[in-house]
Amino acid sequence: MADIFDVVADATRRDILGTLLAHHTEGSTRPSEISVSAIVAELGLSQPTVSKHLKVLREAGLVGVREEGQHRYYHLVYAPLEEIEDWLIPFLSVDFEAAVAEEAAIAEGLKEEQKAFAAAIGKAVADASHQVSSAVKDVRPKSWRK
């Protein structure tokens, strides 16, 4: 069986899971199901592509399927998602607002440092340009001295 993180790493599979979640009926004792053709229509993908990804999701235990004749109806299976949740919880306890503010402060400090560096380089180039211009003027013969 594939690692659950590898399975959900694919954007198409995440889209399919999101579609299944969007069709989940709150308070229902039985899982909400959606047909493959409805997933195809909602995501705008080809039927073979959706079927291929549903197979991977099914093998990972993330979705269940009910067969009715030639039709397949899929629903979410939440238990495997707990593994992802357990892994994520420590990260969610981090104060992200403080971390983002700290990163912004560091970036702003770098911007100011970069501006000061650019200004120093600009001044040095301007001084060098002025010195070269002055030296060229001094070396150039004066046309009025013929």
From TrEMBL:
Recorded GO MF terms: DNA binding; DNA-binding transcription factor activity
Gene3D superfamilies noted in UniProt: Winged helix-like DNA-binding domain superfamily/Winged helix DNA-binding domain
Keyword Transcription: yes
Record has Hydrolase as a keyword: no
HTH arsR-type domain boundaries: 1-99
Pfam families attached to this UniProt entry: HTH_20
Keyword annotations from UniProtKB, A to Z: DNA-binding, Transcription, Transcription regulation
Protein name listed in UniProt: ArsR family transcriptional regulator
